[in-house]
Design brief:
171 residues, mainly alpha, two-stranded antiparallel ribbon, 5 helices, globular
Length: 171
């Protein structure tokens, strides 16, 4: 999931600026900006969120949790969102990331924070790793599927699947 490079001090900002998208906790990520990033994209929302060139810092776990909080199905095409969906998703992203920071991350296997301590965000999961358990919102069973090679957890009962918007004809 990573690589290392050696950069001169003046190369650091350009290197990351060309590879990382909006920082979701800086105020850069607005519902309108999120819709603009997603416009015309046919990739599933889950894949869209994992693309660090669009929005930085959203990993597999937090994408599942943000989509659940936004009531959006992970297979919905990213470009199918309307402004109200983008607002719900933006709020879900910010809520989940702030909660994860307060809980020092998710220690599912061997993750430790910079002080060597386990995080406790895994105790706050609403869908991630909860396959077969009842949804905390509607009671339907949480399901697991694979999207872009990543396990994806969602509730088929309350996470609505959006339809792709029809393409405009060129004249």
């Amino acid at each position: 999931f990573g690589h290392g490079v050696v950069l001169a001090p003046d190369e650091i900002d350009p290197y990351f600026a060309s590879r990382l998208g909006l920082e979701p906790l800086s105020g850069e990520l607005t519902p309108e900006g999120l819709c603009a990033l997603a416009a015309g994209r046919r990739a599933p929302l889950k894949s869209f969120l994992l693309n660090q060139a669009q929005i930085a810092g959203i990993g597999n776990i937090y994408a599942d949790e943000a989509l659940f909080r936004a009531h959006l199905h992970p297979l919905s095409p990213a470009g199918s969102m309307r402004l109200e969906h983008c607002e719900e998703l933006r709020n879900g992203i910010v809520t989940v990331l702030e909660l994860a920071l307060r809980n020092r991350g998710s220690s599912i296997d061997d993750y430790r924070d910079a002080r060597g301590e386990r995080g406790s965000m895994q105790d706050e999961f609403l869908v991630h790793t909860r396959e077969g358990e009842p949804c905390p919102r509607c009671g339907e069973q949480i399901r697991r599927i694979v999207i872009s090679g990543r396990s994806t957890y969602f509730c088929p009962g309350c996470q609505r699947r959006l339809r792709a918007r029809p393409r405009r004809r060129r004249r």
